[in-house]
Amino acid sequence: METKTMNIKVEKAKTSKIGQVDFNNLAFGNVFTDHMVVCNYKNGSWEVPEIVPYHPITLDPSAKIFHYGQSIFEGMKAYKDGNDDIWLFRPMDNCKRLNISAKRMAIPEIPEDYFMESLKALLKLEKDWIPQTPGSSLYIRPFIFASGNGFHASPADEYMFIIAFAPSGAYFSGKVKVLIEEKYSRSANGGVGFAKAGGNYAGQFYPTQLAVDKGYNQVIWTDDNTHEYIEEAGAMNIFVRINDTLLTAPTSDRILDGITRRSILKIAESEGIPVEERKIAVSELIKAAKDGSLKEMFGAGTAAVISPISTFGFRDVDYDLPETPNSYAALFKKCITDIQYNRAEDNFGWRLKV
Amino acid sequence: METKTMNIKVEKAKTSKIGQVDFNNLAFGNVFTDHMVVCNYKNGSWEVPEIVPYHPITLDPSAKIFHYGQSIFEGMKAYKDGNDDIWLFRPMDNCKRLNISAKRMAIPEIPEDYFMESLKALLKLEKDWIPQTPGSSLYIRPFIFASGNGFHASPADEYMFIIAFAPSGAYFSGKVKVLIEEKYSRSANGGVGFAKAGGNYAGQFYPTQLAVDKGYNQVIWTDDNTHEYIEEAGAMNIFVRINDTLLTAPTSDRILDGITRRSILKIAESEGIPVEERKIAVSELIKAAKDGSLKEMFGAGTAAVISPISTFGFRDVDYDLPETPNSYAALFKKCITDIQYNRAEDNFGWRLKV
Questions:
Q1: Which Pfam family is one of this chain's hits (chains A, B) (predicted)?
Q2: Prediction ipTM score
Q3: Which of B170, B192, B209 is a domain's end point?
Q4: Contact: A166, B151; criterion CB under 8 Å
Q5: Neighbours of A228 (CB within 10 A)
Q6: Domain stops at, among B170, B196, B216
Q7: Which of B70, B71, B190 sits opposite A183 (nearest CB)?
Q8: Which of A3, A226, B49, B133 maximizes the CB count within 10 A of its CB?
């Protein structure tokens, strides 16, 4: 995981905004730190990343990001332990996934050392911004978008890679109520659902709003062909516990290969929990909810960590999940956050000290 | 179609760039006129549009357009006749479609009079920019994007509506060679394929590049489920002529309801051409190509107008289209452009004088 040392140029902000931030009342992703990483792709290559004061971006109205949705992002978090040491969780997985997304969206891949070294340098500079209030964290947003110009529907010739930080509270507060969707869809076979592409998110806003209007927090998407199988929740992969077996849908070109998802599968294996990565039919869920074998459902993702689901709705019927002792969701959450915050041994090699 | 008169505030550019433009050598969509329409959505409503000098846009790095692809656009053209009168072609259809796209992408709809009146005012101001070289035109790009900030994956609270003009040459030069795609897909059932959403375009760039590398200009998408039926070409709807019957795929939530497409169907009806709007199997195309009944294929869209297809490729075999006398493509192109340039009677009520 070690990358060669780079000389990242730093232009420091004249003043800090940190004194104006109430770290005890953070929302998700609406306060930003003093600096950011900026790296431009021009004339066929990525320039060396720099750290500059957090500042507005200026683009021509014809910049392709405005017209053709050519953008990708990642979500990560940084953690501080009792010794003020800073930790990242599986950061190279995010870097590699960003480049998988890049390829599918015809965006030039970012060199791994540009990503890792600039991220670490920014974290060192912004270390005082890492919240230590329980439930809060420093959310990290690396993203790339098409900054090149023109109304021709073709890939841009220029791109910007940016890393920005947002000290953030919880993504969801409390348990989550989800609606299983069978009219609208998130992604197509052979489409871009596996990529963290901007357009995958905008397409979910309207159906999600319809679900919110009915009292749900999120939608669980089903396959666009039959709507018989659950896929993911847009900002989270979905796990189901039937009796003692943990189920999750297999990744595909329609489903994001979540890093929290991947971590849960590893932990389950090491804990001896039976796991099935396979298609999960809505009918199976409903049968299990009715006969009492459905013990838990939860979402998993970097922003939401692990979000227990209290209720799922399908065709105007709500199915409540029981309170299950020795919950898998609680076990996985403790195990993952203990590694993230350096409170436990990291037997998987997931933690990286900055 | 008449809308109430609005008082559009105009801030004129100090100098014009028009003298620097070679109107005899225009590419598509990379030269922009001196002014643009800007209209902001803030605090729950659209402010009155203004005309300002064409200038860069400044956004926070957390603006949702960079992260969640929440953007939509339209493509239109303005035409000048021999009397220097300016014409639009079915502009309200573009306005209404923009709002159909807006709804699906959770973007607030733009008032129709804001769209129409600001467009007409900008056209009057920029009338000298409308090219009169054959094959060139003034391309009009109305678009809306999420300018509100935040890393939470939810609709923005602020948006920008912009209209910009680009005097442009032809989108394609000459006949087009297309590849029928059966691995990658453009859109899902229940997805956003019918909307002119930014992300629909970025998702096509990589598969299109693979086709370009094999010597094709464009991809014809098939349904994501079976890949047995042709859908559209991303920047064009597709028409097929088998013997004397004109075929095109029906619109759906996966296929853009093209205004050129709609116009062709009307003209065909008035010309007595037999039309079938129905699913077109790839196997049917290949059979027709082999037995000689496949007479023509062409794409139809605002940017490309009508683009005859010379060859389609499928599974490493190329099928050449014959030279067909009395081509439908030529008939439709003449009929549509004659109406657009005020060279013929407009029996359909499509032309609007600015």
A1: Aminotran_4
A2: 0.96
A3: B170
A4: yes
A5: 14
A6: B170
A7: B190
A8: B49
